[in-house]
């Protein structure tokens, strides 16, 4: 099979041995695979894939058809449309994935949308609800609202009756963010728009003082992106006075059983909302496998609304 | 009635009008009242009492006998031994307290212990269990283990099967901390003793980097004391990688219904352990009401094991 391959920090396409499905695993013929921030870090050697995942093939998510079943696999049949998060190796023509990590693709979604769904909707759902406990009527601020996780979070908040605002650097992307359901605001002076019950931080530590200032009593900040910097000053006095909570979270290092639990939560609480039209997967651009290097450049350039997805053929 | 009174940052004893119990309130003839860090701040004008509490009479906790019942009060009878947290005004001969904030005094406890129990055991219980979710088998670090909240936290951890370590600056106090159930360690280089699942921070921001270093994956830090400083550097990358949580908490500004809930939790889960001998209230020193200024000096001097309590007569 052919796959995106990292060679000396370059993105190339190389031939690899087909992955065989082990016990409880499914071999997926990949049709689409979204790009994520972690791919950029992995390319630069700063975010190695977990043990048991391909080290040189990037890709944290995929969608495709079940091509073969490993011993004991029983959740799906050959030909079923599936999608899911993987530890690595998603950007390839074939991938072996544990069946408990896979979800059925909602009928309303095409391959590109399905390939760009798992990572950002799982991340946003886990951060907003499992971690921060966002509830109807609460006010959410998404720091970095135009990206994949941001657009997912905005829609999820709207779907449960929360009121979202989102910082969007690019003025031209703000109308689209508003359509998705958030009040778009400039990152400059965002703190004046509070108080917020939950803040989803996708940008980094420079926002920390403003986040704390803009937080409501009993507010929660969930940090899942730090591209703009990791270290910032925290005022514990304000944290105490507001009885605030600050959570850090990542999905990738979690054990299989936890990843399976997040997949079940998504199946139950999120996937039905794609078929009912409450949620969509905004795809900013799609690239065929051969042009993966270009897709990486596009992702790194930013200023996009939603996902960059690889389209993968036979 | 006579009461501790704050006059120009000085502690004096003055005559005040007796507080009458309002609807649902109980008039308590106070027998003992513990001192707390908040009293020190209030004395300096940095921590005003919440609305509805006496502004010039300090005191966040008390124990005594029910002297009179306000309209509709029904939980206690005249003469019952009660104790509880109050918004202020605890360091007086009489106090009017809502009956839902009061708890019965365990039989095993004398007045001094009862007067020093509510604030620190409620604070420690709320921080360790309600906030941080400490469970049996987990490792706890108490930053500042010799004080009132620290000694309560150590005992509560031991009582539920958690394993506590505690930083104690004074070498002479360490054997007593060990008797209470914690492995006593020096504050210098504490991070080498990790990983800890829960860290209870009673000292302040200077511990923040070491706390994060010493924290286990999925670990929780609860900040409820910042005497050594409020502002510190936080590495959000470590917070994410460890999927860590940082909570700030205070009891005082909470509404009556939340304070009542913490009182019910204490009645159910903590008070029985005093009668069974699992818990005690270490009292470092007691002072009669007339010597309250001395009690404040003793509290501020630190280097004590447990509570400073005022003994209040008729």
What do these coordinates show?
The structure is a homodimer of 314-residue chains. In chain A, helix 3 crosses helix 4. Chain A contains ten helices and 16 strands. Chain A is globular and about 55 Å long. Chain A is of the alpha/beta class. The first copy, chain A, has two domains: 2-117 and 255-311, Medium-chain alcohol dehydrogenases, catalytic domain (Quinone Oxidoreductase, Chain A, domain 1), CATH 3.90.180; 120-248, Medium-chain alcohol dehydrogenases, catalytic domain (Quinone Oxidoreductase, Chain A, domain 1). In chain A, the strands form three sheets. In chain A, strands 3, 4, 5, 6, 7, 15 and 16 form a seven-stranded mixed beta sheet that branches. In chain A, strands 10-9-8-11-12-14 form a six-stranded parallel beta sheet. The mean pLDDT of chain A is 95. At the A-B interface, strand 13, helix 7 and strand 14 of A face strand 13, helix 7 and strand 14 of B. Strand 13 of chain A pairs antiparallel with strand 13 of chain B.
């Amino acid at each position: 099979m052919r796959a995106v391959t990292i060679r000396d920090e370059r993105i190339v396409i190389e031939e690899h041995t087909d992955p065989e499905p082990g016990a409880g695993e499914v071999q997926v013929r990949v049709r689409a695979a979204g790009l994520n921030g972690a791919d950029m870090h992995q390319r630069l050697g700063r975010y190695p894939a977990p043990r048991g995942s391909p080290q040189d093939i990037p890709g944290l998510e995929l969608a495709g058809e079940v091509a073969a079943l490993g011993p004991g696999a029983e959740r799906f049949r050959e030909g079923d449309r599936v999608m899911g998060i993987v530890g690595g190796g998603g950007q390839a023509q074939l991938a072996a994935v544990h069946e408990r990590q896979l979800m059925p693709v909602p009928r309303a979604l095409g391959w590109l949308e399905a390939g760009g769904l798992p990572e950002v909707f799982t991340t946003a759902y886990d951060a907003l609800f499992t971690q921060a406990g966002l509830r109807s009527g609460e006010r959410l601020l998404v720091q970095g609202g135009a990206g994949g996780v941001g657009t997912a979070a905005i829609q999820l908040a709207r779907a449960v009756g929360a009121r979202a605002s989102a910082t969007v650097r690019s003025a031209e992307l703000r109308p689209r963010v508003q359509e998705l359901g958030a009040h778009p605001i400039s990152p400059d002076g965002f703190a004046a728009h509070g108080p917020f019950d939950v803040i989803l931080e996708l940008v980094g530590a420079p926002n920390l003082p403003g986040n704390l200032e803009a937080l409501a009593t009993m507010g929660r900040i969930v940090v899942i992106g730090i591209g703009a910097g990791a270290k910032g000053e925290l005022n514990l006095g304000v944290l105490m006075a507001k009885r605030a909570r600050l959570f850090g979270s990542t999905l990738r290092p979690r054990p299989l059983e936890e990843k399976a639990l997040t997949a079940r939560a998504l199946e139950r609480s999120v996937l039905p909302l794609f078929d009912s039209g409450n949620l969509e997967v905004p795809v900013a651009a799609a690239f065929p496998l051969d042009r993966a290097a270009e897709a990486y450049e596009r992702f790194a350039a930013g200023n996009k609304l939603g996902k960059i997805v690889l389209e993968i053929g036979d």
